[in-house]
Amino acid sequence: EGLIESVAECGIETADTPYIRGAQHAAAQVSKLLEDAVRTQSISPQDLFDENYAAVPGSDPAQHLTRFCALADRLFPQVQEKALTLSDKVVYCIAVDRNGYVACHNQKYNQPQRVIANPGDSVWNAANCRNRRIFNDRTGLASARNQKPVLLQTYRRDLGGGKYVLMKEVAAPIRVRGRHWGGFRLGYVPN
Prior knowledge:
The chain is α+β, with helices and mostly antiparallel strands. Helix content is 35%, strand content 26%.
């Protein structure tokens, strides 16, 4: 992964180059949207950098709310959904804060949770309701806290119920007024 990052920084084209460029472009777009929101006072810097993750009662897996959820729901889909069209190998494209919190996921993974009434509901939720969740595993935090131009990782994505899929992920930092807000994570199926 480190070698691939070094090659990418040198400008050598690889199979990962389109995904690297896509993640960096999307991160720049999200940064601009967030900066514009602060500039126009659509949100205060304090609310944008809110780390008071309020648990959503009864959610399984646990979901949380922050003061920037409504803004994320309004702004992020235009960037995230477009980034999904980069390739049919792209599985997800999400903006996360520096703690791995995903306020708004791609539409296909942004479903309302099922109330846990039947066996398997929490497994369905884990796969289909990935918004409002904190992904603070090794991969998630590395991507969220990355401040290098690009971070490339390979990992097993947990879909719940013992189901995993091998993924590659590119992350690029999101900054607002020079302050590191989080990262843009673009996950894809390796060639």
